Amino acid sequence: MVLSRRTFSAIAGTAALGLSLTGRTGAYAAVTAPAGPAPGPAGADGKAHTVGFDRYSMIVDGGRVVLWSGEVHPFRLPSPSLWRDVLQKLRAHGYNTVSVYVSWNYHSPAPGSYDFTGVRDLDLFLRTAAETGLYVILRPGPYINAEVDAGGFPGWLTATRGTARTADPTYLSYVDEWLTAVNRIAVRHLYTRGTGTIVLYQLENEYANHVTEATGRAYMAHLYRKVRADGVDVPLFHNDKGRNGHWVPGSFDTSGERGRWLYGFDGYPSPSEPPPDWGYFGIGGPKGGSTASPETPGFLAEFGGGWFDPWGGVEFGGKGYAESRRTRDAAYERRFYLTNLANGIKAHNVYMAFGGTSWGWLPAPVVYTSYDYGAGLDEGRRPTAKLVPLHQIGYLLQSVPELAKLDRAEDIDTGAPGIKAYHLTNPDTGAHVHVLRNDTSAEAVATVPLAGTAVPVPVPGRDARLLTTGISLGRRTLRYSTAQPMLRLTTGRQDVAVLTGRSQEATRTVLTCAGEPAVTVLEGNAGYAYEDGALRVDVPLGGLTRVSVTGAGVSRPLLLLFADDETSARLWRHTTPSGPVLVYGPALLRTAALRGTTAYLTGDTVDEADLEVWAPRGVAEVVWNGNPLRTRATASGSLRATRRLPGAAPVRLPGLTEWRQKAENPESAPGFDDSAWRKADRTSSFSTTPLPDGQPVLFADDYGFHYGDVWYRGRFEGAADATSVSLAYVTGTQGLLMAWLDGRPLGTHRMPVPDRKTVRQGTWSATATFPVTVGASGAHVLSVLVRRMQHDEDLRANDTHKAGRGLASVAFDGATPAVRWRIQGEAAPDPVRGPLNNGGLYGERNGWHLPGFADDGWQPAGLPRSDRVQGVVWYRTVFRPAVDPGTDASIGLTLTDDPARAYRVQIFLNGWNMGQYINDVGPQHTFVLPNGVLDTRGANTLALAVLADGTTPSGPGRVELTLLGRAAGGVPVTRVHSPGWER
Ligand code: IPT
């Protein structure tokens, strides 16, 4: 639908009216007066601040802010020092906000027990975000989904009364416990208090199933009241799972505080379809975006900047994250995020900006260990090519304040049918924005009316670009440019503007000039001409082209920098109290501080790099990573280092040798002493999985075992005539069961992977039937090991996280013995590594994974192996990398073998469970070992728990360290406390 101007202003008028009726004053005011200048970067400055919004954008301290946020999960990077690395990279690449889920299960090993220390130090994360200059969107659930076990619900919650995600009183009592614990930290970091940078706080997550029911509304109202009562005074919101209009203001009781609740929604469109419109401007359907919530700004609480990957091994299985990054590449980011911008979205959150690792038993059944997500920053913390458009858009949104307030303007006819054109305007300044998107595969040329001139603008196939007219470049005004503006600042005595585009593109930029200015092409190719009160500059993009414009009645020179994509990602702006700094050259600028006449910069290089700095007046010296540099002043008004910065030193990784080996699973032997194990004799369960008739409950959660492997030993007498035993069991994806009778292996059963049709209704239950020869009457022992994998997420709010896990029942053919079961899962949670670090393997219960475990009695072993056993064998070794202290090396562990071999490996580095490798499933072969957990300059203990089906030779095959990336610089890394084994 195309709105006429009249209809459109009618809608806009209604919105303004709605706002003035509900606007409030105070810390959370929805501002009705014109907003003032944009506030500086986020920081905890001890002063009180206001955070509000109107229908256009967030309003912080009276100024408009477009939130350009990236999602990062602290729980997916178990090395607090590296949080600073990732947050600095976000800030440097143009984000002004970080969005953070807090996963309840990560912090709570048991009801009433909440741990925010060590790798769980949320306070430290939030402090680091503030120090880095990022606003925070905090999302503590209680439900988060997020491809984590049970969608973030603690294991123990799966074994409690009541229906989760409703107003059920038992559930709410646990929720309050969690929120009290997490909010105690959150309130210390509210931007309103000046002690942190939290500006938004999310309740629940994609809560769609009880929207119209009383219990759903009561639940949301309860969360709202609770969070307010705990002192959280920033605007609250919920993320609708699409633009459905769920939980818009007024849809539940927010204690009359409508101006403090805003509507957000998520988008994960298919990369192979044209980007959808979100309805903000009445296009794209009536329900969506701010059409559903006209008083609140367009807010994409999550928008797919990548996608998660499932286990491999089947036709529709995961293909690895290189594939996510290929289908959602740089051009995808431009097409989809520029479309969002064109739809009036003013608060964006890129899910994920850095995905990280679902280490230990964190991953939900839908994903494997790596949560790289195909994000702009990869799991090894390295920037990828798709970070470039995000970098450009982030800087654009922060440097062009005109973009914070846009109305829809008249549609234009581009004369190019393949191109979708959006036209917006800022009602206060008259600036115009055009987004041109080409959904076809061939380049098309749009004709765009730019400031009264019909300008041909080529748009490459499956790509998009944004053009502006009438924006301020400091003292001068950009009439128009066919290059995309990226940033502008005033530094020293000049204005600087950066314009970008694809390499080799011909661009035209026109400045309004009352008289003919003096133009100097300082570097690169540029043609220019002065005509009719305008300066025209034509630049074919390549590297950095510099054009200086001075005079003609304007007191401040303007330096135009034209940067192709690659070059644009090496331009860094940093704000200091004495003004902004622009740095060109290195692979990363982390921090910039000005003291006296010196600019102190920290950052990274990979290869040798030039360094050039535009700084406020008076700055004459530059110090890079603590080293004073010799510089000279350039004609561009910058200081340039006379020598290139050195690149990163080479990194040589040690081979992994001197393994020791020991088999375990003594639980399979008939004489094993299980008297300390729990009796499995319950007759009722909190599970949603139906119980078999006449047998005790065997689900592990009901006995307090929530993660990883679980053992069962069943005793029975007689049954001499039994011909087979059938074991029904329930797991997540890729679960398995293996069994022994009186110490003899019966076999392994792998949970069938559903096909494309049945995958959605998959209940993940199966029955393993093994032929048996019981023979002699008398006492027998059936030993069963179940690799449960994890609990389902509860995406649809129907308690699916409570589906049973473990053994369900047993039946014999030819006999009916009564079986008395005992059960053993994980030991008491590791107080440092947390509840999700360990399952119930014998080795784990006895510390075989820990540094310092006395393995001297183990057998020396060489890899590769090809033993054929059913059960568990451990391998341990110690290795010592010697990475140069000034080098940030990103290191992984790579396992490879003949893919026919049916075995899997749990990887422990210094006692930390770094994930699960399944040799015959994949697709993951390389596991990131985060520095901090990894000592890059000392001894590390690697322990591999190999679980083999027994149907093929087992491994491990090749096990080696892989260098994922290296940079000179990095952040100081403190070793993560990794307590060792004690007798
Ligand atoms: C949506 C969730 O909010 C988020 O937690 C995560 O699961 C993400 O998507 C996918 O990675 S769920 C939505 C795709 C139905």
From TrEMBL:
Region (Disordered): 660-691
EC number(s) given by UniProt: 3.2.1.23
Swiss-Prot/TrEMBL keywords: Glycoprotein, Glycosidase, Hydrolase, Signal
GO molecular function: beta-galactosidase activity
Domain Beta-galactosidase: 405-571
Signal peptide residue numbers: 1-29
GO BP annotations listed: carbohydrate metabolic process
Reactions catalysed: Hydrolysis of terminal non-reducing beta-D-galactose residues in beta-D-galactosides
Pfam families: BetaGal_ABD2, BetaGal_dom2, BetaGal_dom3, Glyco_hydro_35
InterPro entries in the cross-refs: Betagal_dom2, Betagal_dom2_sf, BetaGal_dom3, BetaGal_dom3_sf, BetaGal_jelly_roll_dom, Galactose-bd-like_sf, GH, Gly_Hdrlase_35_cat
Similarity field: Belongs to the glycosyl hydrolase 35 family.
Stated name of the protein: beta-galactosidase
Native organism: Streptomyces colonosanans
